[in-house]
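dumping this here before i forget
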Amino acid sequence: MSRHNEAGYTDGQMVASYLMDAGLDVSNIHGQIYDAIRSIVYNRRDIIQQIYQEMYAGSKSNFSCNFFELMRWDFILGENLQIYLLEVNPAPPMTFRGAGIPSSMKNERHLYNAMRTLGADKIGGHTAKGNWLRDSDVLVSASICYKSTCESCTSQECLLCRHCLPDDHVTMLKESLGQQLNRQGMRRLHPKPMMNGGGSVKEYDTRREYIPKRERLNTAWMEEKCKQDTYWCR
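structure:
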């Protein structure tokens, strides 16, 4: 382990190397962690949002679209490398350089990635939150939207056409686009990756009627972006 550390590898890479040397298959560990975090956050999102609404009641924060919180998830590995969740820490310590702790640089990187994804940094004099994006940057389904069948916006396939999108939904899509472009080392939980094993685009969810409208719209938009460029599929 010390040899790997001296070579500059991360703690995760060191542990994975040790386990592989022991003849164990580590390929599914990160997938288990991702699925566990996504499942918990997605299934408890209304409760999480309600808690923070109560915590910040009366503040100027707007929780109608989204909110932000850093959390640390602690897992342990079982004998067969199955994961078990120990706890979720909503206020992880973020000790930075100068404290003599090796993880300080990692904490700085995590915080930077989070701030950049949220648009709290500056890019070319504009924030990454979305005000540097045009409506045309988020528009999809051009081959459908110009047809006369989409004039009334009654068809489901027309919901992503610009004249059918309320302005607040356009703003939401701009924020989603900005987050995707600026996420650095972050991974999105929703919508989940949209690529099959063979590299083709897969349908994300066949039960969309159970998904809130804004999430359903964002999912459909991500699918269309994924069809245009596989960068958006992950």
